[in-house]
Amino acid sequence: MRDDKEIVHTPNLQIDKLPPYLPELNLVEHLWQWLRRHACRNRMFLTLDEVMKTLTANLNTLSINQRKQLFHCNNILHYK
After folding, report:
1. pLDDT tens figures, 26-55
2. Hey, where are the domains in the chain?
3. Where does residue 79 fall: left (phi above 0), alpha (psi -120 to 50 degrees), or beta otherwise?
4. 8 Å CB contact between 46 and 52
């Protein structure tokens, strides 16, 4: 692995250090937020199996376009 000092800098390349926690750049954080709002809001689950069934059912209702919007990325899913 290369150290930052070894990287060749070019005029069209900018290297930025990111903070250790940046949820807006972590795509799965958008998914967890959506699930908290739509699948788990105001719910009390008695078993882990009930949680898994609820999450799975809600994830299965998402269309490809909804997934793309959720992740703010049109090329993340390549389905026909």
Report:
1. 778 888 888 999 899 999 999 999 999 999
2. 21-80
3. beta
4. no
